Amino acid sequence: MSSLESSVPAEVVAAVDVNTTANEIYKHNFPNTLLLPKTIEGMTLNDFNKLDFDMILMSPPCQPFTRIGLQGDVSDPRTKSFLYILTLLPRLNKLPSFILLENVKGFETSSARDTLIKTLKECDYSFQEFMISPTCLGIPNSRLRYFLIAKAPPGSLSFQTTSEILQGFPKADCSDSDRAIISDSQCSVHSSETRDNKDVLYKLETLQDLERKKSQNSEESVRRLQDFLEEEVQGSDMERYLLPSKTLLRYALLMDIVNPNCRRSVCFTKGYGHYVEGTGSVLQSSKDVELESVFKSLEVLSEEDKLKQLSRLRLRYFTPREIANLMGFPSCFTFPPNISIKQQYRVLGNSLNVCVVAKLISLMVS
Predict the structure, then answer these.
(1) Which residues contact 338 (CB under 8 A, 6 or more apart)?
(2) pLDDT by residue (tens digit) across 206-254?
(3) CB under 8 Å to 26, separation ≥6 — which residues?
(4) 62: annotated active-site residue
(5) 3-state SS class at 56
(6) How far apart are alpha carbons 65 and 75 in whole angstroms?
(7) CA–CA separation, 282 vs 66, rounded Å?
(8) What's the whole-model pTM score?
(9) Which among 62, 123, 187, 355 is annotated as catalytic?
(10) Residue ranges of the alpha helices (H) in 16-124?
């Protein structure tokens, strides 16, 4: 998908994944591409040589490196496939001309990353590491991720590389070099305190968090969420995405609430739609209700009155299509009809931003 969006002429010679749902969705969208439903370590050196590829795009399992996980790093069995590729790389008949890797924030301090850098240096690759969020491209969604691009000798990357991890694209390649890079760790949660200026300070949220949100919403280089939303038609099935009463009462003070005019949303994870806290923003679809008026003195109300207040906001989940829009998937990308909403949320939460990867591919091959 990213190679298509990058406008770089390319043919995908093979896609490899063990996730049956992801594979079904991939086959639905790319029926003519060779899809290998197996582990990377299940492929031999000869298998790789037969593919005769020029570019490898990889996103190794993130669980060994995620900040909220056990951080097992190279001792985690899920790192095995990545380490296997690194052992094969110097032994290939032909070094791939280009390599792009994506992973979560946390990978940059791992032993797996050190092994990657050591291998690239031994193979004389020119490379650069990045930390990039889609906000750099004007997309109102925080999804800070580690990226690496590499180019095989005798070529080199088209910009001055550095051993430091770049926070965003090289300045000449970002239309506004001052755009904020918004970390997933900054995805704050709400509380019930109120202030004299009517701003609501939410649970576990600091004044700095509140100011950051206001700053994000005033960043005119980032588009508004309304550009990525599906049209809400009267009588449509959009009602199915409204938050249930039980969820409203239990989690109202923990949700990150945005409206169509906002220029921000927090990172969507695979638990979105199933879990509430820390999995992604919810949308206030009622346009004529002030958020502050609903949350003011909310905690002193009875459950019945509290529910009446919260229901005025018509809070709903972003639809899978809307999340796909925010993640840069083109309108031609669709899900097979048998893939459930929950499965759609899960694969999107495990995905990456197509626009960011497309720009990195263009940068890598230029």
Answers:
(1) none
(2) 778 778 888 888 888 999 999 999 987 665 688 999 999 999 999 988 8
(3) 15, 17, 33, 35
(4) yes
(5) strand
(6) 11
(7) 23
(8) 0.88
(9) 62
(10) 20-29, 45-51, 80-88, 111-122
